Amino acid sequence: MKAWAVVENGKPLQEIELPTPEPQGDEVLLEVTHAGVCHSDLHIWEGEYDLGARGKLRMADRGLSLPLAMGHEIVGRVAKWGPGAEGRVKAGDVRLVFPWVGCGTCARCAAEEENMCAVRPRALGVYQHGGYATHVLATHWKHLVPIEGLDPALAATYACSGVTVFSAIRKLMPLGAEEFVVVVGAGGLGLQAIAILRALGHRAICAVDLDPAKLEAATAQGASATVQAGEDTAKRILAACGGPVMAVMDLVNGSATAAAAFDALGKGGKLVQVGLFGGEMRVPLPLMPIKALTIQGSYVGSLPELRELVGLAQQGQVPPIPVSQEPFEKADWALNRLREGKVTGRIILTAG
Question: Could you tell me if 290 and 268 are in contact, meaning their C-beta atoms sit under 8 angstroms apart?
Fold first, then answer.
């Protein structure tokens, strides 16, 4: 199979030939038709995460090896399958692929929380080849989600940006429809968060970003207030929301955004940290119990959450985010556009 792969960290993606997998057991081989370009791909491409004073977390230390075809927002057509998938799929089925797979046998995996597997994480596009390729191997037929009635380019985004913010929103709830939810970052995840909050009936949404163009996109998506980030971001959030807030979703999660998010919280408020920008957070410890605050991380989402989100989208409840489509041959260009902050919504790589 052909792949557009990371061969050396920080260097341009290369078009290479890889062996086409032969599905075994419950596995299913798909021809990739659509693959989203996600901000997480930048960290994989760079080869490390910034841990602030603790230094760097190298992707190699997490078990990543090169060359690697990235891409975890994948839609494809079923081509072949192992004997365990017989009768579960048929040739030509178009499916969204759940990429956040684990060992398949631990308690977390048995509970359909494979994204939380600590035994042997095997996420597509991270630990094994993903969607920046002509073919991808789904590790189990149950990971294939039907998307009838949806634009496959848009549906691809639900496998990461969609299910990631859906899972984070669930951690913020319950919350009244008129209680502000602050969404830090108005890129692909931020716009998806606004769309899903609107789908769930939420009406008070404040988007925060450095880029005025992205804030305009957030308003178009349904944000009821916007804040341009700066040195006094927390004060601007308080002004826009009429005071301290009960819910902040930080989709950037850098040192500056984390501090501003914390300072904007009201008593009993919750900060859910999603992004992987990096750095560290210093928290005044007495304020944690005095204000009864919660800080919680949220890592992508589960297979049941993805199925639920796709169901909402199929019912027409989730407004689409902006997507642009480019051929796989422009994968490196697309990655660099994202790195330069020049993408509104999502770039989706497509097969010619």
Answer: no
d(CA 201, CA 219): 16
For the stretch 312-338, pLDDT in tens is: 999 999 999 999 999 999 999 999 999
Give kind and range of the element (H or E) at residue 227. Answer: strand 225-228
| Overall fold of domain 162-297 | Rossmann fold (3.40.50)
Distance (Å, whole) CA 79 – CA 58: 35
Specify the length of the chain in residues: 352
Q: Where are the domains of the chain?
A: 2-160+301-350, 162-297
Same fold, 2-160+301-350 and 162-297: no
Classify residue 7 by its DSSP letter. Answer: S
CB 297 within 8 A of CB 281: no
In CATH, what is the architecture of 2-160+301-350? Alpha-Beta Complex (3.90)
pLDDT digits (tens, 9 = 90+) for 204-251: 999 999 999 999 999 999 999 999 999 899 999 999 999 999 999 999
Say if residue 202's pLDDT is above 80.
Answer: yes
Beta bridge pairs of residue 346: 323
d(CA 139, CA 74) in angstroms, rounded, equals 13
Q: Identify whether the C-beta of residue 88 lies closer than 8 Å to the C-beta of residue 38.
A: no
Residues 6+ apart with CB under 8 A from 173: none
Dihedral sign for Cα atoms in the order 233, 234, 235, 238: positive
Cis peptide before 121 (omega within 30 of 0): no
pTM attached to this predicted model: 0.96
